[in-house]
Amino acid sequence: MSERPVARALLSVSDKTGLIDFARALVERGVALVSTGGTAKAIAEAGLAVQDVSDLTGFPEMMDGRVKTLHPKVHGGLLAIRGDAGHEASMAEHAILPIDLLVVNLYPFEAALARGADYDDMVENIDVGGPAMIRGASKNHAHVAVVVDVADYASVLDDMAANGGATSLPLRKRLAAKAFSRTAAYDAAIGTWLSGQAGETTPAFRALGGTLAQGLRYGENPHQGASFYRTAESRPGVATAVQLQGKELSYNNLNDTDAAYELAGEFDPARTAACVIVKHANPCGVAEGASLKDAYLAALACDPVSAFGGIVALNRTLDAEAAAEIVKIFTEVIIAPDATDEAKAIVAAKKNLRLLVAGALPDPRAKGLSVKTIAGGFLAQDRDNAVVDDLELKVVTKRTPTEAELADLRFAFRVAKHVKSNAIVYARGAATVGVGAGQMSRVDSARIAARKAADAAEAAGASEPLTRGAVVASDAFFPFADGLDAAIEAGATAVIQPGGSMRDAEVIARADEAGLAMVFTGVRHFRH
After folding, report:
1. Residue 509 in contact with residue 372, Cβ under 8 Å?
2. CB of 470 within 8 A of CB of 427?
3. Is 280 a catalytic residue?
4. Backbone angles phi, psi at 176, to 5 degrees
């Protein structure tokens, strides 16, 4: 028989949302309740009969609650195979009663991590008894139902109502799968945190875990299934942002919004307003300005064609002036640390436009993990947290860049860090004027960026492209002088690049010949 009557339930939860209503519904079905600590107290205070686990085991909770459910009368009740003669005999011999339903949500380790708890607090938020019970009940899902998510209370009660107080095997299988996934994600968060505390950069085992934030209609393409998961990391961004309005975010929206906001985080809001416009995970326009409106208009001017249907990320609170400009063209998403009421009202007129507020900017210098799947495994690396302001720039040409050129060089290299390789960025007056991304050769990126600048100049009715007198940034070294020749032809006057090519001398000589200033950063920013 696949249906299993529920006669006894053990409840031990840190999140008590919906607990009393669920417990009351179980009692009304004649289910005996066993519970621990604060959960037992809350149930008893609601006037419901409950047996404390210490009365079940014959041992008091001890060691500040560290030891309470780690006992044969608990685990025997969860793991016993009903109808197995040997198991039944052991239960009878040791007075072990079967537990048919386990309800556990774990100590809030992830929440402690998010709030930046200290080391001792983090350790105390590592649950031991909870995962042990969850795994035991999940293994024995042929006989026991296990609930690790308050969202499943209703489905358990509905299943019991449909089966005369019993749970069905399909439900128990689904709950067991969810329970094992929950403990895996929980342990992944603990393992990642503790590896960091121990200074482990390449742990022998690397686990990834997350909580479903959103089921997506499809992935990059309609034939691909997809979903969005949040990890325990509390980095401000699309995963932590609140969506104030607009359609549901798609897979591509989420990916592009993350890319845009990470770049926006490179610009200190106390120093300048900044705007980033992203299309297909690449910035098509980035600019600083005296106001967000100024920054947006300068970013838009770089590539107004690509900006249509793009993502706009801002480093300051969205104000009405900027909002009024942004909504003039079709935009998929706006993300900012916050938004004024006036700005919200303006954006509200575009009902499909998504508006997200993240509360803060991501710290570009913060450590973190970047993960990419490959066939049969995944690659893990440190987040690229190198910031151009922290780098020592080495002048390698006869001409030293002017202060204005130096400011634009830093700006351009800041942007190039977030452009897919091979990346070339032309900048002038703290705004991008041409971006070349994702090409197989660096010279092609340089030519494409110049071509885009020429197109933008023609659309604006300008006499010449803004690459004339601009600076250029390359995310990696120029392997040959041809990429530099393309920049010279576009009118660039100064160059910033990592250096390190076996042909550096040739490239430097070509810059000197053309009268360009060139600086080396010593740091590469590949982004694939």
Report:
1. no
2. yes
3. yes
4. -65, -40
Distances (CA, A) of 24 to 153, 161, 291, 488: 12, 14, 57, 77
Reported pTM: 0.88
DSSP state of 339: B
Which of 91, 85, 98 shows the shortest CA–CA distance to 10? 98
List the catalytic residue out of 16, 87, 280, 344.
Answer: 280
Range with the lowest mean pLDDT among 83-92, 122-131, 282-291, 494-503? 83-92
**Helices 481-490/442-460 angle, 10° precision:** 10
Averaged pLDDT score across all residues of the chain: 93
Q: What pLDDT digit, counting tens, does each position of 38-77 carry?
A: 899 999 999 999 988 877 777 677 666 666 667 878 888 8
All residues at 6 or more sequence positions from 170 whose CB lies less than 8 Å from its CB, including other chains: 2
Using CA atoms, how far apart are residues 359 and 477, in angstroms rounded to an integer?
37
Nearest residue to 97 via CA among 46, 37, 34, 42: 34
- Active-site entry in 139, 173, 178, 344: 139
Asked if 498 contacts 521 with a C-beta cutoff of 8 angstroms, the reply is yes
Record the tokens describing residue 437, joined without a space. Answer: 């991304």
Question: Is residue 181 very low, low, confident or very high in pLDDT (cuts 50, 70, 90)?
Answer: very high
CA atoms within 13 A on the CB side of 248: 10
- pLDDT tens sequence across 467-499: 999 999 999 999 989 989 999 999 999 999 999
CA dist 434 and 465 (Å) reads 9
C-alpha separations of 246 from 43, 154, 350 in Å = 41, 29, 8
Q: Encoding tokens for residue 44?
A: 């008893």
Amino acid at 461: G
Catalytic residue status for 139: yes
**Is the per-residue pLDDT at 357 higher than 70?**
yes
d(CA 274, CA 263): 10
